């Protein structure tokens, strides 16, 4: 088995990959994430997932490199990581009663052969109607300031949600494990 590299510094992606009980290393790729002119969100995230894996190819020439990227849309506008309490409050206020669409791209690059697989995993989350007090209580509990959409579905954020729809809830957190297992099988790594 070629060694696995996770092309990410995200603690959330690292935690997800650990669930597969495979040895891996993490390395942060140096990739400009600026959208290209007229680039659609799904095109952007596919391009960046591949670019993140390719950015580590020279440093890891005989490895399987996992790249992932995610975009979140609310009312057809990109939603970023809030960074601050005030921005998270604003995002959740805008999300109240609405559906956010998460598009997570995944790339598995065999740096020895140059062969890569890229897939997109959509996931949608519909929020309950939320009042200001609920939003404040939630933010003080989970502090999701480094999470696009300003919530953690794997934490107390599940209480904000009315329904979710998609094939792999892990894609919501940033790494579609079901699709990754399928990609690894294409490289001869069968789980469990």
Automatic annotation (TrEMBL):
Keyword Secreted carried by entry: no
GO molecular function, one term: nucleoside triphosphate diphosphatase activity
Keywords carried by this UniProt record: Cytoplasm, Hydrolase, Nucleotide metabolism
Compartment(s) where it occurs, according to its Swiss-Prot or TrEMBL record: Cytoplasm
GO terms, biological process: nucleotide metabolic process
Cytoplasm in keyword set: yes
GO CC annotation terms, alphabetical: cytoplasm
InterPro entries noted in UniProt: ITPase-like_fam, Maf-like
Major subcellular location class: cytoplasm
HAMAP family for this protein: Maf
Protein name: Maf-like protein
Lineage, top ranks: unclassified sequences, metagenomes, ecological metagenomes
